[in-house]
């Protein structure tokens, strides 16, 4: 009898242990879900899409921007959260044989202009000044809402730029340029004004990688279509329209994005693989050192779509131990409010070095041939005129 | 003392220069000729490339398929023309309107200074008809022109048919950003000149034309078309224009791109393109074509309607369809497609063509020589004149210094020796007389043609040419007469001063001519420079006289005519050559009066007086 009692107790203990383990497994499953739910810290998405070149033969830059616009809109970002800047109107250009369309695939398969394009900055309004004002928020009070980037510290912003560029600059409208330093400073201003949570910067120009070299603000991930010294090439001409329709990098990005739907779990590492050198001829590059999260944990839809996270559970979840991320960000926010100091993650500008700088010793070069020759001539003329006998007074 | 102020050192320097001068001159002249001949060879020629970004690399598919329609139009036009004898204006207006263009007509008339024997016309009056295709969605600020010149000798009816069919096709497209003007002119170049003057609201040649009613904006580019039959074996392109002006090289590159795309056979100067540039054959053929282009550019004639457009800075080409004995022929559709492609590409332009070269030479359709590479050739030739002038200057100053020393005058040194003072006065007379002869050569032939026609049994055109030759030859007798005017005190060294002035005058003129029309400047320099450098009253006068006569401007013209026909593989006999020469003289005078060609005034008012000065130097007593 004592044995059976022992056995029954052991059995209950065993079942209790099993139930407990099941429960804990179930609980940890819910906790995993919760952890995934709070994987990224953003609550809204914005997109700033800029095409900087005008003229009919730059058709492909407008098509690039419009195809990213189309993808971003399809994945959920509304027009009120998209700032679209197009420097020229290709759809209504007198040279367009198909007016009111902008095609991205030859044989006119895909019209990216569509029926409901909303261009916020058009034609001559696309200037460096307007672009920087949009980013930093220093906009005159009369600007309409559709032309503002009203992001907050929980916004993930996608910035896409395309046009003609070079080593360290991007050309706007054939008359001015924005340098990589200006762009980096603008992003720093955005960070200090708490205008973004995370930023994805994509650029499709020649030597595009030079534009993200100077970034120093945290939480920025950057992609470019070509390295310094390489040209980004265009994809395919359309013989009916007579221009190149798209650039290679954006063409393959568009194809990649067409596969994405709002529920996709594709992450950034896949985006880095888009358009290898065999297809693109140039080498696309990316920069993730300023980004806190691991790119493989970053979903494409974190930036390209506006995904509302709603999960229905029947369990109660304890957020105390699993939501360390949220807690730590809360704590840091509080700390920030108290101390009002910028957070240090990446290297800031070394201000101390700049202010208390010793003058750098320049290498001494002997005087050039021209100066030597000039002095020799002067001396020769002097002695010729006044006679060589004067030389002994000098030496 | 300094190098130039010490008389001992200066004399040494002068002796050095005088000793080295002759070999240096010879070397420089030979270097100039050698450089010119080397222009057709690879390091100096480059491949052509499209410089204009807007006309970029993308090709457009042409859709022109109106070959039958073109032929029908051509048949009708030819029939109407035969019926009316002149341009069938009403039919053209009706047809253009039916195709959908805005049609306007312009009347013009001109009385030529003397009857034109080659075209058999004297009082010319005609009508130009043009239709404007307005760009559907753009403001009419820019336009392109497709022109077909119709003359009495070449009816060009196939080209008119193609023009009308192209107009019908273009009218159905919506991608035009510039207006297109379809122009049919009467009397060839005279009609084109009348239309251009009225379009740009100027009057440079004395043409009487009615003002234009319809206008389409600044002309960006023009293509002139001449087709002799409806099947062509090759398309020949002409680029040389009035006074040696050339269109922007990008236009030629555009044409060549479409030749390659459509597989058309395109020729330059009527010759096939050399294929093999690695061995010697290609460059030699290129040299032949280069020489042909140099001769055509030097003549300063507008070789087609396009030549008149260039004066208004409108880039233009003439395309001639040639039907020769080849097996593979292209029909009007192929030519039409090439034109459609060219116009579509020109439609993409945002600014005038300005990225590519305006001064170049073409050894082949796909090769060119830029101005920076061909100018040294002319520079070397003109250096000879400079060196000779320097040598004469030194000799004159040495003579002046030499005169002083034996005299041993202790007085204040005279800056110029007295011999030179008299020399200056004796220079003025030959200069004035030579210039007066030049003026007579320019003015008298046309002015005195009626007087000459009355007294001699010749036609007016012949009278002009014969008067020209007579005055030219009369100049040869001058030196025997000028000495009566000049004081007998003219010393032995006076001819040096005259030659110095003549050398500088020649160098200035040739320099200015070479800058704008390299071919003319080079040709004249290559012939006149040795004779000018060698002319002196001592030595074998007959030899120098013969050399000088052989290199006079008229003889150069005669020689270049022979060379031109030789290069075109249709050599002339002496009699034929002389006839051609007389015709060329008449044409030269006529073109100066009708289009403003500058060859005749340059030769008669500029180079002939200069040549006479050398003739005077040669016969100095």
Automatic annotation (TrEMBL), chain A:
Record-annotated active site: 164, 206 (nucleophile)
GO cellular component: GPI-anchor transamidase complex
Keywords on record: GPI-anchor biosynthesis, Membrane, Signal, Transmembrane, Transmembrane helix
Pfam families xref list: Peptidase_C13 (PF01650)
Main localization category: endoplasmic reticulum
UniProt pathway annotation: Glycolipid biosynthesis; glycosylphosphatidylinositol-anchor biosynthesis
InterPro entries: GPI_transamidase (IPR028361), Peptidase_C13 (IPR001096)
Subcellular location: Endoplasmic reticulum membrane
Biological processes annotated in GO: attachment of GPI anchor to protein; GPI anchor biosynthetic process; proteolysis
GO molecular function, one term: GPI-anchor transamidase activity
Topology in the lipid bilayer: Single-pass type I membrane protein
Domain of life: Eukaryota
Extent of the signal sequence: 1-27
Membrane-crossing segments per the record: 364-383
PANTHER family: GPI-ANCHOR TRANSAMIDASE (PTHR48067:SF1)
Similarity-based family: Belongs to the peptidase C13 family.
Assembly mode: Heteropentamer. Part of the GPI-anchor transamidase complex, consisting of PIGK, PIGT, PIGS, PIGU and GAA1. Interacts with GPAA1. Interacts with PIGT; this interaction, via a disulfide link, stabilizes the expression of GAA1 and PIGK and links them to PIGS.
Protein name per the record: GPI-anchor transamidase
Organism whose genome encodes this protein: Sapajus apella
Lineage of the species this protein comes from: Eukaryota, Metazoa, Chordata, Craniata, Vertebrata
From TrEMBL, chain B:
UniProt keyword terms in alphabetical order: Disulfide bond, Endoplasmic reticulum, Glycoprotein, GPI-anchor biosynthesis, Membrane, Transmembrane, Transmembrane helix
Stated role: Component of the glycosylphosphatidylinositol-anchor (GPI-anchor) transamidase (GPI-T) complex that catalyzes the formation of the linkage between a proprotein and a GPI-anchor and participates in GPI anchored protein biosynthesis. Binds GPI-anchor.
Pathway info: Glycolipid biosynthesis; glycosylphosphatidylinositol-anchor biosynthesis
Annotated compartments: Endoplasmic reticulum membrane
Species this chain originates from: Sapajus apella
Transmembrane stretches, start-end: 20-41, 357-385, 422-444, 456-478, 498-531, 543-564, 598-620
Topology of this chain in the membrane: Multi-pass membrane protein
Keyword Transcription: no
Any Gene Ontology CC annotation: GPI-anchor transamidase complex
Keyword Phosphoprotein: no
Subunit structure: Heteropentamer. Part of the GPI-anchor transamidase complex, consisting of PIGK, PIGT, PIGS, PIGU and GAA1. Interacts with PIGK.
Name used for this protein in its record: GPI-anchor transamidase component GPAA1
One BP term from GO: GPI anchor biosynthetic process
């Amino acid at each position: 009898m004592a044995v059976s009692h022992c056995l029954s107790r052991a059995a209950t203990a065993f079942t209790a242990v099993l139930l407990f383990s099941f429960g804990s497994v179930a609980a940890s499953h819910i906790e995993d879900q919760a952890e995934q739910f709070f994987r990224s810290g953003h609550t809204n998405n914005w997109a700033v899409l800029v095409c900087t070149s005008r003229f009919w033969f730059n058709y492909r830059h407008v098509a690039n921007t419009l195809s990213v616009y189309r993808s971003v809109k399809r994945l959920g970002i509304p027009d009120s959260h998209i700032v679209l800047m197009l420097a020229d109107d290709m759809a209504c250009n007198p040279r367009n044989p198909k007016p009111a369309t902008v095609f991205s695939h030859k044989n006119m398969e895909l019209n990216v202009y569509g029926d409901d394009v909303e261009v916020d900055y058009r034609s001559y309004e696309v200037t460096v000044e307007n672009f920087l004002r949009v980013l930093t928020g220093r906009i005159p009070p009369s600007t309409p809402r559709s032309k503002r980037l009203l992001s907050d510290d929980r916004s993930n912003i996608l910035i896409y730029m395309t046009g003609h560029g070079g080593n360290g600059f991007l050309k706007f409208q054939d008359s001015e340029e924005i340098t990589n330093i200006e762009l980096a400073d603008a992003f720093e201003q955005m960070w200090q004004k708490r205008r973004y949570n995370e930023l994805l910067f994509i650029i499709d120009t020649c030597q595009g990688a030079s534009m993200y070299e100077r970034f120093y603000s945290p939480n920025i991930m950057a992609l470019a279509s070509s390295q310094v010294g390489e040209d980004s090439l265009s994809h395919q001409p359309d013989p009916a329209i007579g221009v190149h329709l798209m650039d290679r990098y954006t063409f393959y990005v568009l194809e990649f994005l067409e596969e994405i739907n709002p529920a996709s779990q594709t992450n950034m590492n896949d985006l880095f693989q888009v358009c290898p050198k065999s297809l693109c001829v140039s080498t696309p590059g990316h920069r993730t050192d300023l980004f806190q999260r691991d790119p493989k944990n970053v979903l494409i839809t974190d930036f390209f779509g506006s995904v509302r996270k709603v999960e229905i559970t029947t369990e109660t979840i304890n957020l105390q131990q699993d939501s360390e991320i949220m807690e730590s960000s809360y704590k840091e926010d509080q700390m920030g409010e108290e101390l009002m100091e910028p957070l240090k993650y990446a290297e800031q500008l070394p201000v101390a070095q700049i202010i208390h700088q010793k003058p750098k010793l320049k290498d001494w070069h002997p005087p050039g041939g021209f100066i030597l020759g000039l002095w020799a001539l002067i001396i020769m003329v002097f002695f010729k005129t006044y006679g060589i006998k004067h030389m002994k007074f000098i030496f | 003392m300094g190098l130039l102020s010490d008389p001992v050192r200066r004399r040494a320097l002068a002796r050095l220069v005088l000793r080295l001068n002759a070999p240096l001159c010879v070397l420089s002249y030979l270097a100039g000729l050698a450089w010119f001949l080397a222009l057709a060879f690879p390091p100096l020629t480059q491949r052509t490339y499209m410089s204009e970004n807007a006309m970029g690399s993308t090709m457009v598919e042409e859709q022109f398929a109106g070959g039958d329609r073109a032929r029908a139009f051509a048949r009708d036009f030819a029939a109407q023309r035969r019926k009316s004898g002149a341009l069938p204006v009403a039919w053209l207006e009706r047809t253009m309107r039916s195709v959908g263009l805005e049609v306007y007509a312009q009347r013009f008339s001109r009385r030529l200074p003397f009857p034109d024997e080659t075209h058999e016309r004297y009082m010319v009056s005609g009508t130009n008809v043009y239709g404007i295709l307005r760009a559907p969605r753009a403001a009419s600020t820019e336009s392109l022109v497709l022109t077909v010149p119709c003359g009495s000798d070449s009816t060009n009816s196939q080209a008119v048919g193609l023009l009308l069919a192209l107009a019908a096709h273009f009218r159905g497209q919506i991608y035009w950003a510039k207006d297109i003007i379809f122009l049919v002119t009467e009397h060839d170049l005279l009609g084109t000149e009348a239309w251009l003057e009225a379009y740009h609201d100027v009057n440079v040649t004395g043409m009487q034309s009615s003002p234009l009613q319809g206008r389409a904006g600044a002309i960006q580019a023009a293509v002139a078309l001449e087709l002799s039959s409806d099947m062509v074996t090759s398309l020949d392109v002409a680029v040389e224009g009035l006074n040696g002006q050339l269109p922007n090289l990008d236009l030629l590159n555009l044409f060549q791109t479409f030749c390659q795309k459509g597989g058309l056979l395109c020729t330059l100067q009527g010759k096939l393109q050399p294929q093999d540039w690695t061995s010697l054959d290609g460059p030699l053929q290129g040299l032949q074509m280069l020489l042909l282009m140099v001769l055509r550019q030097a003549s300063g004639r507008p070789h087609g309607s396009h030549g008149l457009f260039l004066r208004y800075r409108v880039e233009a080409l003439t395309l001639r369809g040639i039907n020769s004995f080849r097996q593979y022929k292209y029909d009007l559709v192929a030519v039409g497609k090439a034109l459609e492609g060219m116009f579509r590409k020109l439609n993409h332009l945002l600014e005038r063509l300005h990225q590519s070269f305006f001064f170049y030479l073409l050894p082949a359709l796909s090769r060119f020589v830029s101005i920076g590479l061909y100018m040294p050739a002319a520079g070397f030739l003109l250096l000879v004149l400079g060196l000779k002038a320097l040598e004469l200057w030194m000799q004159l100053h040495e003579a002046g210094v030499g005169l002083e020393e034996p005299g041993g005058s202790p007085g204040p040194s005279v800056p110029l020796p007295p011999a030179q003072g008299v020399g200056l006065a004796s220079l003025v007379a030959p200069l004035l007389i030579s210039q007066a002869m030049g003026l007579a050569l320019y003015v008298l032939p046309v002015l005195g043609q009626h007087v000459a026609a009355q007294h001699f049994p010749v036609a007016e055109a012949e009278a002009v040419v014969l008067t020209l030759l007579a005055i030219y030859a009369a100049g040869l007798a001058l030196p025997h007469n000028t000495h009566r005017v000049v004081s007998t005190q003219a010393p032995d060294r006076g001819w040096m001063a005259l030659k110095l002035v003549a050398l500088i005058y020649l160098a200035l003129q040739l320099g200015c001519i070479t800058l704008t029309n390299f071919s003319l400047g080079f040709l004249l320099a290559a012939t006149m420079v040795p004779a000018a450098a060698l002319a002196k009253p001592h030595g074998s006068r007959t030899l120098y006289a013969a050399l000088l006569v052989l290199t006079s401007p008229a003889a150069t013209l005669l020689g270049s005519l022979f060379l031109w026909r030789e290069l075109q593989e249709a050599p002339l006999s002496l009699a034929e050559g002389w006839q051609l020469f007389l015709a060329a003289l008449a044409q030269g005078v006529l073109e100066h009066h009708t289009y403003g060609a500058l060859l005749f005034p340059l030769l008669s008012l500029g180079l002939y007086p200069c040549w006479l000065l050398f003739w005077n130097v040669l016969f100095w007593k």
